[in-house]
Amino acid sequence: MIRHLVLPAIVLTGALGCRDKATRDAATEHYGLGRPATSAEIATRDVDVGPDGAGLPPGHGSVAEGASLYAAKCASCHGPEGQGQLPTYPRLIGRDSIAEGFPFARDPRLVRTIGNYWPYATSLFDYVRRAMPQLQPGSLTDDQVYAITAFLLSRNAVIASNATLDSATLAAVKMPYVGRFVADDRRGGREVK
Amino acid sequence: MTSQVSAPQDPTKAPGAPTIAVGSRSQFVNAARAPTGAIAGSSFTPLQDLTGTITPSDLHFEVNHGGVPAIDPARHSLLVHGLVQRPLLFTLADIKRFPRVVRVCAIECAGNGSLAWGGGTFGKPDPGLTPQQVAGMTANTEWTGVSLRVLLAEAGISSRAKWILAEGGDSCLFARSIPIEKVMDDALLAWAQNGEPLRPSQGFPMRLVLPGWEGSTNVKWLRRLELGTRPWMTRWETATYTDPLANGTARQFSFVMDAKSIITTPAYPETLTPGWRAISGLAWSGRGKIARVEVSSDGGLSWHDATLQEPVVSKAHARFTTMWRWDGSEAILLSRATDETGYVQPTRAELIRARGIGTLYHYNPIYGWRVMSNGRVFFRGDT
Question: Is residue A30 very low, low, confident or very high in pLDDT (cuts 50, 70, 90)?
């Protein structure tokens, strides 16, 4: 349809040597719509954290602080031991030795806990800060998010039980199974992948 | 319910009802989604109650990760920032001033088919499943919006930008990383569905539509687009929406939905009587057009081509139909889709061989319906 509209415009331009300057085709023109965003407006919304630690805020929190915060803010849904309540609240804590072969596709009963599955520790901080607790999202301070992240990583045997996390130490955490994640190689055609 | 349904013995002998402001379905029609009721929950489209190719907006399936937010469009804006020359804020009114693109396409949740897979318990799929339960997390509608590449050109995309973070304005700030190639190809920022403003559960006032890609990347209630050099690795592209494979890996950023089909009638819990009847179903592919749908009535021993309703639209639901004469003996009805890339919808056994019984998401096995000699129809997922 677009082609039908564009062609007559080109013909007219060629034949008459002029064209209605007040109309434009849906190409890569600038329309001058929207308004500039201020740095303050960007900072308010720009909450994301990258796997390299980019976007992690100042602050810190310890495993011990996280333990009491978890009991107060998280345990009512996810359980005092992070065991979850299915189907709504996933199990968070668990580092099963059987997960070492990453056999999730062979054993559907193996739970994708933080320690068994999550490839990046930064995702945990990012998610808790975005979305938790479910009934009061966005209510945790950055220090509290660091502490809860530290508690969950410690209980999943990823960091020590006396650890404290800040932007540098969290960015340095390497999750056990990050190397198990692969790019999508499906391309259509005959093969079933 | 029956007590609320009433009609005169002869409707031609009584005056009809006057006109009304907003229409509703006939009191004799009960098509409805099946909501789980949870904040982070879903509701499935009743495929068995629909025909044609367009899904009514109020029956379009939902999957929400932080509930459905109530957004005042006058106080909503979309921030575009990161690797752009000019960070910009757009209101809904701004978005509507851009060139308008209208496109029909399907959106399917990556988890569609999980109930019918039966992997969690190593069990066989439950025979008591309806089309809604088997495949009700797909829907096909007409979207109006602005091409995302046109919108982003307004901000000026840096050549260093390779990924874009799309973030919703819901209570979990749902966020997914999208490769810039998809943005430059056919991504839409949509603000209308089936000719009216988006409904709240479909992203009001604005959402992403990424034709052919798993539903969760079509971020609803969009409030922010950030351009960057690498994916952000949000929870929803690491801990979830990744697909464990039989070789001890997990497939990540598995965006495209492979070809799939399902017969929507006859299906459980219908009871058939012998004689001719139409078999009707839906087929779709995230890679383009459906090229062919074959139907079998003998469990896959023999196949013949069903008729595809024209026009067949790329990355959209196609309606197929064929006539079948049931002779009263046991039968197994199957459908098998082929898309324009030559991909053929696999059996469940083929998928298990390729991915493992415990794989998650992207379930597209051949589905069937077992017709018993007494006419009762049951789901047949073990193909």
Answer: confident
Extents of the domains making up chain B: 77-110+139-251, 260-380
Q: Quick one: average pLDDT of B54-70?
A: 97
B77-110+139-251, superfamily in CATH?
Oxidoreductase, molybdopterin-binding domain (3.90.420.10)
Inter-chain touch A41–B94, beta carbons under 8 Å: no
> What ipTM, to 2 d.p.?
0.94
Distance CA A40, CA B136 (A): 43
pLDDT 10s digits, A148-173: 999 999 999 999 999 999 999 999 99
Residue A33 to residue B80, Cβ atoms within 8 A: no
Do B233 and A119 count as a contact with CB atoms less than 8 A apart?
yes
How much is the mean pLDDT over chain A?
89
Are A184 and B147 an interchain contact pair (Cβ–Cβ within 8 Å)? no
Of A46, A134, A182, the CB nearest to B226: A46
The pTM assigned to this predicted structure is 0.94
- Confidence (pLDDT) at A4: 44
Q: Find out whether A182 and B249 touch, Cβ atoms under 8 Å.
A: yes
User: What's the gap between Cα A192 and its chain centre?
Assistant: 29
Whether residues A134 and B94 touch (CB distance < 8 A) is answered with no
The CA distance from B15 to the nearest CA of chain A, in Å, is 46
Rounded to an integer, what is the distance from CA B45 to the centroid of its chain? 9
Residues on chain A touching B256 (C-beta within 8 angstroms): 184, 186, 188
Residue A22, token pair as written in the block: 């007040």
* H helix count then E strand count, chain B: 6, 24
A103 prior amide bond cis, ω within 30: no
Architecture of domain B260-380: Sandwich (2.60)
Nearest to A33 among B97, B121, B342 (CB): B97
Using one digit for the tens of pLDDT, what is the confidence trace for B7-49?
999 999 999 999 999 999 999 999 999 998 889 999 999 999 9
* Mean of pLDDT values over B287-315: 98
Q: Work out the burial of residue B70: count CB atoms within 10 Å of its CB; fewer than 13 is exposed, 13-18 middle, 19 or more buried.
A: exposed
Secondary structure of residue B123 in the 3-state scheme: coil
Give the model's confidence band at B94: pLDDT under 50 very low, under 70 low, under 90 confident, else very high: very high
Nearest CA in chain A to B166: A48
Q: What is the 8-class DSSP label of residue A174?
A: -
